[in-house]
From TrEMBL:
<dbReference type="InterPro" id="IPR005025">
    <property type="entry name" value="FMN_Rdtase-like_dom"/>
</dbReference>
<dbReference type="GO" id="GO:0010181">
    <property type="term" value="F:FMN binding"/>
</dbReference>
<dbReference type="GO" id="GO:0016491">
    <property type="term" value="F:oxidoreductase activity"/>
</dbReference>
<dbReference type="Pfam" id="PF03358">
    <property type="entry name" value="FMN_red"/>
</dbReference>
<feature type="domain" description="NADPH-dependent FMN reductase-like">
    <location>
        <begin position="5"/>
        <end position="161"/>
    </location>
</feature>
<dbReference type="InterPro" id="IPR050712">
    <property type="entry name" value="NAD(P)H-dep_reductase"/>
</dbReference>
<protein>
    <submittedName>
        <fullName>FMN reductase</fullName>
    </submittedName>
</protein>
<dbReference type="GO" id="GO:0005829">
    <property type="term" value="C:cytosol"/>
</dbReference>
<dbReference type="InterPro" id="IPR029039">
    <property type="entry name" value="Flavoprotein-like_sf"/>
</dbReference>
Amino acid sequence: MTRTRLLALCGSARQDSFNRRALAVAIRGAKNAGADVTFVEPRDFVMPLYDGDLEASEGLPEAAARLQRLFAEHDGVIVATPEYNGFFTPLLKNTLDWVSRPLSDGSGKPGTIHLRGKAAGLITASPGALGGIRAMQHARLYLSNLGLIVVPEQAAVPAANKVLGADGSIADDRTRDMLEGVGAAVCNLANAIGRNAG
Ligand SMILES: Cc1cc2nc3c(=O)[nH]c(=O)nc-3n(C[C@H](O)[C@H](O)[C@H](O)COP(=O)(O)O)c2cc1C
């Protein structure tokens, strides 16, 4: 049996991002559950702001085409996003909006063909008291609209500047369990989908 392959996507490009730290914990949970995980480094997938004229004249940005291919090769995705004024980030939305556009192979198929029916999980982290929980409702809806099946498990990390250390340490066992639990849940759902498909 081939191992489950998951992508890990962070809605913050910041090197010291708390969401990046939280994502590392969720990735550990997915790996412990048996998944191979590919971290998508945001700075390796820089895309212009979506513009229909640009798409018509130049086609899909090379980074978007690369990410479409990565989605094709993976069984699900773990998404971490900061909360900006109650919403998930424009970086995350712009990236996945481009990915949803027709494939660059000329087949005319939508990019969502590589997302539809696959497993997804959501986490968020913030220095604030709510941990970014408001962003997750919108992100959950958005990922569902792309055809992903979002696991009910989710995790928001308040006071992330105190809880998530730069060295990968985590000051709260319950938060660790929740973050790892999201990663594991995505792996388990992807496995179940794979079994049904096979
Ligand atoms: C434009 C903007 C809006 C923000 N709005 C919120 C917010 O609604 N709720 C919140 O908890 N933090 C908010 N923050 C603070 C972010 O949580 C904080 O910058 C966090 O470190 C971003 O995530 P990162 O560390 O993964 O980059 C906002 C930050 C920015 C730049």
